[in-house]
Amino acid sequence: HTASSSSQPSFSSLTSFQTAYTNFDENSRDSIASVNNANDVSESQHTRDDSSEGYGETTAGSIQRLCDFLQHIDESMQTPFIQAATKSARASQTKKTSRSKKAKKVTEEPAEPLISGFNLQTDSRFVDIGSGYGKVVLHAKLAVGMAYAEGIEYVESRSKIAAEVLRDLQAPKCVAGPINEEQLEGLVFTAGDATAREVLDFSHVYIYDKVFSDETIQRVAELLNKSPVKILISYQRLDTWRRLGLEQYIPVSSLTMHTTGN
Q: Whole-prediction pTM value?
């Protein structure tokens, strides 16, 4: 993976490119990066169960590489570009804060240490918006063992299948392999519209937003702007997110993701 600030490769039929974005928060000085395996939940799609079936599922190998990347994302943020972008964001936020308080001058802050604290780890909270049949969030939970992982899917039939798979894995005679109850604790599948929530109380957000309408991305952006998210993983260009209202995010890196669809 390489840090990216502008151009991204175009999508191919089986390969999509995911970019991790970082968000600067004036209060916590945290970054945000997220990834989401979401289906389009625009008004025109709400009644369709097959709106994104053709895209298939992210492969297990890609999910594992993504988890490995997120577990060490702090390393990708120690580049001159990321440091400069963060410094610029902080300076801009300081000026905004000073103006809002009608301060007569801006006090220069001491040098900040290298930004960190964004790795996906056991105390993280992970969400997959538009989780489909639950493959990404299930694999991520088993690979990392984060405290809480949730898949939010608008199409109820898909969410039900994901919940059934989870119940099967929790069964005493599960044939999937050595999966114990502790590995699955804190894994939840929810049917509903993620944008109807007040905030996204997660550290890492994953969104497969290739099939999202501008209206849906705009609603998600509004929600992200008021949520304590650290990492956003998206398949859209950051320019698109910014045009639709996302604030205070900077690009961190990109990597190739493979799916089983057409």
A: 0.73
